[in-house]
């Protein structure tokens, strides 16, 4: 069984973050290992608080997993500050030199409810030191606008869910200039919590199973569309409910 390591924040409502990553990885037939970067207090109505895990503890978690479980792919989500970003890079860089497994980074900056999840000083370090380690970066439109030209040298999937219209189009940009579009009909539902986490974890799982980037994205898009469709009428909490991977 292939191991997928997720490095991300914890969501107490289990609709996003580490908890949603694990559900998605398991649904793909892989084994999920975890490194928690931040502990958040949140529910379907929003984020109440966030506490960054000390960088040394993050580094220790990564080391513990890498030295024993040998992941076939790595997904990175919420990075709360520069110190945690440094810990991630310092642990992953030497490992990836010896074991060049795919890395998918979902640059989580602000929650759906508007809560800031990354300190500004982390962004420059991440674009300079973490981006070169990544196989694929998966920003949404607001994140891509903030990152600007920093994305262009790398493979990235620009997610179109924040755009208006009945059709949502994600665009895969490859470093050689190749572009591929993935369009789906917009599904009207309040249950969209954790979509970014689900998509990036699905891509990482597909890469762990041997898919190339294009196929990994295509399969992940089909997976998340099915998950959203399955969740349309589910009532969990009083706000932006989770999607249900299966």
UniProtKB/TrEMBL annotation:
<dbReference type="InterPro" id="IPR004399">
    <property type="entry name" value="HMP/HMP-P_kinase_dom"/>
</dbReference>
<dbReference type="GO" id="GO:0009228">
    <property type="term" value="P:thiamine biosynthetic process"/>
</dbReference>
<dbReference type="InterPro" id="IPR013749">
    <property type="entry name" value="PM/HMP-P_kinase-1"/>
</dbReference>
<dbReference type="Pfam" id="PF08543">
    <property type="entry name" value="Phos_pyr_kin"/>
</dbReference>
<comment type="pathway">
    <text>Cofactor biosynthesis; thiamine diphosphate biosynthesis.</text>
</comment>
<keyword id="KW-0418">Kinase</keyword>
<feature type="domain" description="Pyridoxamine kinase/Phosphomethylpyrimidine kinase">
    <location>
        <begin position="11"/>
        <end position="242"/>
    </location>
</feature>
<keyword id="KW-0808">Transferase</keyword>
<dbReference type="InterPro" id="IPR029056">
    <property type="entry name" value="Ribokinase-like"/>
</dbReference>
<protein>
    <recommendedName>
        <fullName>hydroxymethylpyrimidine kinase</fullName>
        <ecNumber>2.7.1.49</ecNumber>
    </recommendedName>
</protein>
<dbReference type="GO" id="GO:0008902">
    <property type="term" value="F:hydroxymethylpyrimidine kinase activity"/>
</dbReference>
<dbReference type="GO" id="GO:0008972">
    <property type="term" value="F:phosphomethylpyrimidine kinase activity"/>
</dbReference>
<dbReference type="GO" id="GO:0005829">
    <property type="term" value="C:cytosol"/>
</dbReference>
């Amino acid at each position: 069984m292939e191991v997928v390591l997720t490095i991300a924040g914890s969501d107490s409502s289990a609709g996003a973050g580490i908890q949603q990553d694990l559900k998605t990885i398991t649904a793909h037939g892989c084994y999920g290992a975890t490194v928690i970067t931040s502990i958040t207090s949140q529910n379907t109505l929003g984020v109440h608080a966030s506490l960054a895990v000390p960088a040394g503890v993050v580094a220790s978690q990564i080391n513990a997993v890498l030295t024993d479980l040998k992941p076939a792919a790595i997904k990175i989500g919420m990075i709360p500050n520069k110190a945690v970003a440094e810990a991630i890079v310092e642990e992953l860089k030497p490992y990836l030199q010896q074991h060049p497994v795919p890395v998918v980074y979902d640059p989580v900056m602000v929650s759906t409810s508007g809560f800031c999840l990354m300190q500004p000083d982390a962004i420059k370090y991440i674009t300079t030191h973490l981006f070169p380690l990544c196989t694929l970066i998966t920003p949404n439109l607001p994140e891509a606008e903030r990152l600007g030209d920093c994305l262009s040298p790398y493979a990235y999937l620009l997610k179109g869910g924040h755009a208006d219209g009945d059709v949502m189009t994600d665009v895969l940009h490859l470093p050689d200039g190749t572009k591929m579009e993935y369009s789906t009909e917009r599904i009207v539902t309040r249950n969209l919590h954790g979509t970014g986490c689900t998509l990036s974890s699905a891509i990482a799982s597909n890469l762990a199973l041997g898919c190339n980037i294009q196929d990994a994205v295509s399969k992940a898009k089909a997976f998340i569309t099915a998950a959203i469709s399955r969740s349309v009428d589910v009532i969990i909490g009083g706000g932006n409910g989770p999607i249900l991977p299966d």
